[in-house]
TrEMBL record:
InterPro entries: Flavin_Rdtase-like_dom, NADH-dep_flavin_reductase, Split_barrel_FMN-bd
Name under which the protein is recorded: Flavin reductase
Highest rank taxon of the organism: Bacteria
Keyword Oxidoreductase: yes
PANTHER family for this protein: FLAVIN REDUCTASE, FLAVIN-DEPENDENT MONOOXYGENASE, REDUCTASE SUBUNIT HSAB
Gene3D superfamilies per the UniProt record, alphabetical: Electron Transport, Fmn-binding Protein, Chain A (2.30.110.10)
GO function term, MF aspect, one: riboflavin reductase (NADPH) activity
Domain Flavin reductase like, residue spans: 21-164
Family as reported in the entry's similarity comment: Belongs to the non-flavoprotein flavin reductase family.
Keywords: Oxidoreductase
Length: 168
């Protein structure tokens, strides 16, 4: 059976599109890097995905108007921290504008001196391999140079809120 439509496509309403996207559950990450003055920068992102096993590549995206865009675009490395279910408050802290998002946050340093947050389910230290502007975001592709895993219940973002994927 073939279905065809001769009606012109209806423009997608941005609010409705965002609401529809919110029904796709995603993991939650915090991307960390370093500012030119040596302080750290981090932000919450749910746009994370694997790209390739050989070479090991991952991607995430950032709004083109984000204040952090010049830093992430210009830096050679960043760390993607995959949050565990008990880290919703940390996700909120890194999602809010503020001067020191790392206040009260435990972390260790990666081989390139970037923060790896304590208690995460996994982390990926990436070389900033390439960037692709698409729509109102830039897609960052990182080549994974190091990673580690500590299997835990994941933090999930769905319907505009943080959840545990393993909740009944």
């Amino acid at each position: 059976m073939s279905i065809s439509s001769h009606n012109p496509p209806v423009p997608v309403d941005t609010r409705h599109f965002r609401h529809a996207l919110s029904q796709f559950a995603t993991g939650v990450t915090i991307i960390t890097t370093c500012l030119p003055d040596g302080r750290f920068l981090g932000l919450t992102a749910s746009s994370f995905n694997s790209v390739s096993l050989e070479p090991p590549l991952v991607l995430w995206s950032l709004n083109q108007r984000a204040n952090s865009m010049p830093i992430f675009s210009g830096n050679s490395h960043y760390v993607i921290n995959v949050l565990a279910a008990d880290q919703a408050e940390i996700a909120n802290q890194f999602a809010r504008p503020g001067e020191d998002r790392f206040k009260g946050i435990d972390y260790t340093l990666s081989a390139t001196g970037l923060p790896i947050l304590s208690g995460v389910a996994a982390w990926f230290e990436c070389h900033n391999r390439s960037r692709y502007p698409e729509g109102d975001h830039v897609i960052f592709v990182g080549e994974v140079e190091a990673c580690d895993v500590c299997p835990k219940e994941p933090l999930v973002f769905h319907g505009g809120r943080f959840l545990s994927a393993w909740q009944p």
